[in-house]
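Structure in, sequence out. Go:
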């Protein structure tokens, strides 16, 4: 979310003092109505890494989006696009079946993927079905053929381990600080300049929009935004704990542990 130009405060992008301390890249680089994906980010970040190597500098990749970091570490599967004819077939299947039935059908084509998905996960179920109908190859097979972008001995991964109580407190205080820094003005400008577009699910954005449109009070908006931020932080912590392999953990007090 920090790639978007319109909301530098609400997405906690590095400010001028951060930029003066050390160069930052790939922040505030596209507008919100521009197509963007993890594949595009990977192309950009690989160029930045190459540039750092040429200058004999050590790049530090930071982030909270697990998909992006994991894709850089493990690689991103190449999956052919879905044709219009397959999209029509999928639309017919969705209109005549529920997610449980589609989940059972996915088991026949891609049991490995089906076992990883809940029967209610319609979006990922239909994605798996569409890929198989298009290519006659299971999505899990495409994913297993993925090659890493970087050799594993060229980098190390650090998990910044924060106690749950401190993490939640930071979530609450950070959102209030964002409001004082001008986050509401950012959102108002966004609504005026880009009305009607589908806004990304940026934490706090829709809560502030609802307040500005008179649907909730300021207090309710703050409380909901803080709650959603804490929920996200909890999911994020769990995901990183289970999905990544770490070389070091940065503990309380600045201690590093392997």
């Amino acid at each position: 979310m920090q790639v978007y130009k319109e909301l530098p405060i609400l997405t906690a992008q590095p400010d001028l003092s951060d930029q003066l301390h050390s160069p930052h890249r790939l922040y505030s680089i596209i507008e919100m109505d521009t197509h963007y994906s993890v594949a595009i980010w990977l192309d950009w970040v690989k160029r930045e890494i190459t540039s750092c190597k040429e200058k004999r500098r050590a790049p530090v990749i930071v982030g909270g989006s697990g998909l992006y970091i994991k894709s850089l570490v493990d690689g991103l599967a190449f999956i052919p696009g879905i044709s219009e004819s397959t999209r029509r077939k999928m639309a017919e299947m969705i209109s005549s079946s529920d997610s449980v039935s589609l989940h059972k059908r996915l088991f026949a084509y891609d049991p490995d993927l089906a076992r990883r998905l809940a029967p209610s996960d319609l979006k990922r179920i239909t994605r798996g079905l569409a890929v198989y109908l298009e290519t006659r190859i299971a999505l899990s097979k495409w994913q297993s053929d993925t090659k890493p972008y970087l050799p594993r001995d060229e980098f190390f991964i650090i998990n910044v381990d924060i106690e749950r109580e401190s993490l939640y407190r930071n979530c609450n205080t950070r959102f209030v600080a964002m409001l004082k820094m001008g986050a509401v003005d950012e959102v108002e400008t966004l609504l005026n300049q880009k009305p009607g577009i589908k806004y990304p699910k940026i934490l706090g954005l829709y809560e502030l929009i609802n307040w500005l449109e008179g649907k909730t009070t300021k207090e309710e908006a703050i409380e909901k935004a803080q709650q959603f931020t804490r929920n996200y932080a909890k999911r994020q912590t769990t995901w990183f704990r289970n999905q990544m392999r770490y070389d070091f953990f940065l503990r309380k007090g600045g201690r590093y542990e392997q």
